[in-house]
Amino acid sequence: MLFHTWPFAVFLALYLTVHLAVPAGWRLGVMIVGSAVFYGYWNWAYAPLPLLLCGATHLLTLWVAAAPDARWRLRLGVVLLLLPLIFFKYTHFLLTGLLAPLLRGLGLTPPATDVSILLPLGISFITFTLIAYLVDVARRRSPAAPLSRLAGYVLFFPHLIAGPILRPHELIPQLGQGLAVTAAALRPAVLVFCLGLVKKVVIADNLALLVNPVYADPASATAASSLLAYYAFAGQIYCDFSGYTDMAIGLALLFGVRLPVNFNHPYAAQSVGDFWRRWHITLSHWFRDYVFFPLGSRRASPLTLARNIVITMTLSGLWHGAGWTFLLFGLVNGLATLPEIWTKRRHPARGWRRAIRIVLTFHLLLLTFILFRAPDLDTAVGLFRALLGGNGWGDLPSLVAHMPFECLLVPFYLAAHAWDDHRRLAGWARGAGGPVVIALAALAVLLAASLGPETTAQFIYFDF
Length: 464
Hints:
Layout: H1 6-21, H2 27-40, H3 49-65, H4 71-105, H5 123-138, H6 147-155, H7 157-160, H8 168-175, H9 183-216, H10 223-254, H11 272-276, H12 281-295, H13 302-320, H14 324-343, H15 351-373, H16 377-387, H17 396-401, H18 404-418, H19 422-431, H20 434-451
Helix pairs in contact: 1-2, 2-6, 3-4, 3-5, 3-6, 4-5, 6-8, 9-10, 9-18, 9-19, 9-20, 10-15, 10-16, 12-13, 13-14, 14-15, 15-16
């Protein structure tokens, strides 16, 4: 059930009807049930999974808290929470990508591994949200919550599928405030949601039409079409994921809940490390706090610090997907972060130096995005070859002839990037009149209906 489709509009209308009709004390329970229905719409067989994981986390939290020295229990609890994720997401890769080549290298015949496991929607986000709860409660950063609040914290449907990845203190206290739907919250909620709608449908889905054919057949891609896909994917993935985040934040605002910022003008980054402090901020903070810091102090030796950064970024790459392309994506980004760390060049440059850093960082990141987008290493290699002119520039005239519509997307993209911080837009909407917000919302819907492609694509991060 995608936020920008009619099934979700029907679900939201029905849900709001029930939510507004019940007493305030019942709304958390209604939210849990409604979120379970929202999740189950994708695959009813997996509908109980988030609830089961919440119950397991609740029991693990009690078990960890019962020990005077809970360190080993906490480590075991984290491992146990990771097991479902490893099973669903990494079984195929472990068997075919690691075990089979290892056995062949030893001269042995690998067993038949026709493993096809359907990945539960949002399993990576759910798992990391639960680990954050277990660790923060065990370390007394957050108080333990009743099972109902824990379930609400995880299943709250605006962030359930693709984040932002929340900490307990960022949502659980807000669940006790009645989840009230107020007229004052309606204007910012609608406007932030509509910004995400335009990002996704008008920009990301149209750019996907330029990207997908090239990655589907890189052997036939020319340098011109590959270069176009190289740049188009930067806009697609940003507007796709930040568009989802905007819609999630807007929906949360409708219930009086404020979710954290997840993007901060990422393509204005002056280094790779700066980029990851601006892109998918809640995931970067998760890896910083629960992987990087436990590995050792930032005051460690340069080699130890480099090791910790590379490990953290490589694991972050694998979080995005089970495959060699994602592993290399994380590894390359980790290595590219090291110069900034070793030279301690964290202060932003100004003037022409700033412009040069931004341009270089942007193009380096786009090269790593090829690994992110390619379904396998052969496709990635094919795209790199095509970018180097392997198939010539023969279709350049025809591509230029079809570019006017794509050029119209540029101002939309620049405006979307400029309004990256939803708090500014929400603050403006609170002071705007109702007719102004209604007109802007109608314009957003009209743009999505008229400029969006005939078929809309699933959010990219739903795969993670």
